[in-house]
């Protein structure tokens, strides 16, 4: 069995260069590859195109890359929690492609499955449809969307083994499974890394064939994006 373990985040991110396209898992601040993002900030990798459901917050997640102006283009579904993102977008400093959330997920899944394009009804008749091919199926109009073509996919899982098999926990699963195997190279950072053969096969969410590199992260903050409380009775 191939051992895909690398000893550090630095080794895991080898080969990521300026100008590349990256898929990054997570939803809000849940299930994001914290260690990998921090290393990209440290390396000052720039001119990046980042595909992620959202752009983190001002001082965490992908927001850290935005602060350093390392992202050239953001392809996202929801970006309402990041003031710096808004500033850069409105000033023209940042290219932005906003797409429906389901379309974002399916463009990842299509890339994972080797499907070059697909038709979806989402966005037809709106600004999303501008410049895209449309076609009628069974009396309903659909848009042609293309699978992402990314250099690296960087995802986060709860537990993994040295063969690259992954288990996610709760809603931290989100976009991570459909981004696994959706790029030329998939890097998985995990909270707990065990030897191959020790995970229950029935509990594995993503098989190791979709992962090329895996490493154990550290010092996870797991911040809460919006803390909502109420007064005690």
TrEMBL record:
Give the matching Pfam families: CoA_trans
Note whether Transmembrane occurs among the keywords: no
* UniProt xrefs under SMART domains: CoA_trans
InterPro entries tied to this protein: 3-oxoacid_CoA-transf_A (IPR012792), CoA_trans_fam_I (IPR004165), CoA_transf_BS (IPR004163), NagB/RpiA_transferase-like (IPR037171)
Q: Which UniProt keywords apply?
A: Transferase
Provide any one GO MF term from the record.
CoA-transferase activity
Q: Signal sequence: where?
A: none
Q: Which NCBIfam families match?
A: pcaI_scoA_fam
As for family, the record states: Belongs to the 3-oxoacid CoA-transferase subunit A family.
Return the protein name: CoA transferase subunit A
Q: Which organism is it from?
A: Flavobacterium restrictum
């Amino acid at each position: 069995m191939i051992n895909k373990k690398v000893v550090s985040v630095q080794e895991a991110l080898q080969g990521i260069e300026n100008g590349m396209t990256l898929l990054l898992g997570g939803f809000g601040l849940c299930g994001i590859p914290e260690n990998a993002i921090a290393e990209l900030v440290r390396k000052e990798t720039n001119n990046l195109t980042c595909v992620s459901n959202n752009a983190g917050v001002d001082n965490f997640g992908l927001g850290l890359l935005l602060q350093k102006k390392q992202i050239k283009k953001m392809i996202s579904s929801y970006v309402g929690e990041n003031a710096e993102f808004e500033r850069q977008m409105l000033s023209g400093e940042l290219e932005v492609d906003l797409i429906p959330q389901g379309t974002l997920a399916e463009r990842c899944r299509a890339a994972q499955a080797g499907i070059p394009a697909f038709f979806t009804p989402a966005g037809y008749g709106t600004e999303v449809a501008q410049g895209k091919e449309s076609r009628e199926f069974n009396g309903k109009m659909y848009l042609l969307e293309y699978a992402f073509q990314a250099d690296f996919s960087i995802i986060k899982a709860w537990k993994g083994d040295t063969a690259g098999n992954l288990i996610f926990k709760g809603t931290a699963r989100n976009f991570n499974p459909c981004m696994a195997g959706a790029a030329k190279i998939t890097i998985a950072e995990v909270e707990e890394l065990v030897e191959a053969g020790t995970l229950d096969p029935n509990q594995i969410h993503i098989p190791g064939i979709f992962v090329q590199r895996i490493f154990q992260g550290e010092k996870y903050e797991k911040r809460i994006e919006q803390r909502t409380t109420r007064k005690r009775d």
